[in-house]
Amino acid sequence: MYNILIVGHGNFATGMKSAFDLLLGESDRVHAQDLSGDITHEKFEDIVSDYLNKQDQLIVFADLMGGAPSQIVTRKIAELAKSKEQFVVSGVSLGLMIDVATNILVLNDEENMLEKINNSLDSVRNIMGVMSLADFEEDEEVECEDMI
Description:
Elements: E1 3-9, H1 12-24, E2 30-35, H2 41-54, E3 58-62, H3 68-80, E4 86-90, H4 94-106, H5 113-127, H6 144-147
Parallel strand pairs: 1-2, 1-3, 3-4
Domain PTS EIIA type-4: 1-128
InterPro entries: Bacterial_PTS_sugar_comp (IPR051471), PTS_EIIA_man-typ (IPR004701), PTS_EIIA_man-typ_sf (IPR036662)
Keywords: Transferase
């Protein structure tokens, strides 16, 4: 059974977990660990190591590719070499987390997890976008429905 760990700088992890819980409901399989000014890299590494040692099937969502939380988790997974079912997904968005977690927590579909993660990455790219008032004609009145 897969668990999810969210890691990031500042209050990113706990903030994302808060939004996640609001949208999908709280789950005892979803955890967050911030790397903030209150915690050293060494303490963060100890916490992550303990967590990794307890989880054979794990998806870690990290805020930034190459950031300290992502690097520490990736390095610890490689060092521990505990399971090929531990994944780190960096540069994460809430949409990506929800997409991946729906398979795990809602649909109970945990087969071919790497393929599911990659499919979710592709899906999320297709729903991202940008809007500006330049998208509308100057004399055209902009209504909220036009922006959605």
